[in-house]
């Protein structure tokens, strides 16, 4: 335990930008063949130097991610779209991002999950039901705003509606809403559960 603390501090103190596992689930009932993408980062008004003309590498409002998508058949589209998807950002495909059957990505691909353990698409993070679309990534929490960032769904070429998030989410990691936003507000290094077009939220630790 003691050495773990030292290691954690060593890493955090030296780099100042810890990569932590971060999960976002957005519940959205979809038809077979539909694909939900996530877009996000920080609203461009929140930091100096954020605008769409800036490259992803130097934009302070986009957040480096590494996807964790299992190689099952049901996820082959998401897997292809996750190749070269290095940021959670507010645009569609990144310059090096993979396509699938010649269809470009519309953001960061999420995967359809269920809480039914008999299904291949079961995910242990989903204790809720069918249609919980998941983004499971290692995220650079150093690029967030005090550990928080924003996210919105993108489906069939359409943005999710503006969100008025609850003043306080449920869950073990919930705090008072850290800022006002038209997006879901999520915590880096935690499991965040949202609902499409809805302000309800749960933020908790990984078990
Ligand atoms: C990736 O996802 C799998 C399955 O959900 C999980 O068991 C594993 O711990 C995850 N890996 C990381 C690095 O988060």
From TrEMBL:
Q: Which UniProt keywords apply?
A: Signal
Q: Where is the signal peptide?
A: 1-16
**Know the name of this protein?**
Alpha-amylase-like
Q: Which gene encodes it?
A: LOC106051451
